[in-house]
Amino acid sequence: MSDAGERGKVYLVGSGPGDPEYLTVKARRLLREADVVLHDKLPGPNIIALIPEHARVDVGKRAHGERTPQSAINLAMVEHAREGKTVVRLKGGDPTVFARGGEEMTYLAEHGIPFEIVPGMTSAIAGPGVAGIPITHRDYASSVTIVTGHEDPTKDESAVDWETLAAAGGTIVVLMGVTRLPQYTQALIDAGMDPETPVAMVERATWPDQQVATGTLETIVEARDEVGITPPALTIIGGVAGIREDVRNSLEGNDD
Ligand SMILES: C[S@@+](CC[C@H](N)C(=O)[O-])C[C@H]1O[C@@H](n2cnc3c(N)ncnc32)[C@H](O)[C@@H]1O
To answer: Is the minimum distance from the CB of 91 to ligand 1 under 6 angstroms?
Structure first.
């Protein structure tokens, strides 16, 4: 079905962190009504299961170890829309946070395709929250920086200025930062941050197999390995990460 006549329309939809109860009402409706839903694995199995089978297209699939190129996803959105279809491009969390939503918006605009952004709860805020970590707190942090821990191996220099972040004093939330945890925790210590600064990692926040590891800048690599944290996971650095241990006994719901 299409609500945009012959031209079709693309919805860039955020699925939230993974538990279907955190889908917005609008996202849930669009998943039911769309002609095509282009998704990868990040929304999680419980949300992907809500998409009618005839509409499901996995664009995160790896052929010979490669991800579907972004150019192919862009093309698929435009082609389906030009056939007059209602297209959902479903993304984990929010479609504008480390999700190529910006690139996709530009591409759609360049090709004259009407689109709409349907925000989702970003894991960068929801993930710490469900683990008992508020990303701001009057006593610990009045600012938050969300950064990528994923670095281009072909680049010599880090794209993230860890030295400036160490000096800034707010909470740091690192996405895509499981593998490079040793590098950036050391960079923060080298830049003068207290090695005792609390750090937490939250894997698969709100999924049934959510896991959390806690420690300090000095100990978190060991804690990551002990718990067996694997992607997708967040790293939360700063005083707020220590709050989890204070509230844990009363924390229910998604907590592991
Ligand atoms: C490509 S980014 C997409 C971020 C997403 N757009 C958002 O707003 O949450 C993928 C990274 O998001 C984080 N992430 C997404 N969902 C998560 C979840 N349920 N639990 C923990 N981390 C998650 C992980 O750091 C993962 O490597």
So the answer is: yes
